[in-house]
Amino acid sequence: RKHHHIPYFLFITQRSNPHHAALCHSLPFASDLAMTASEILNIAVTVGLSQLACELLAKYFVYNGDDYKRKVAALERARWKLEKAEIDAAKSNKHEKRLQRAKDDYGDACAQVSRKHTVPGFMISIFFVMLLRILGTEHKGNVMAILPFSPIKFVSRITARGLDWSVVEDESVFEGLSVSHKQGASFLFIYMLAALSVKFFVSKAVGTHPPTGA
Question: pTM, whole model, 2 decimals?
Answer without folding.
Answer: 0.71
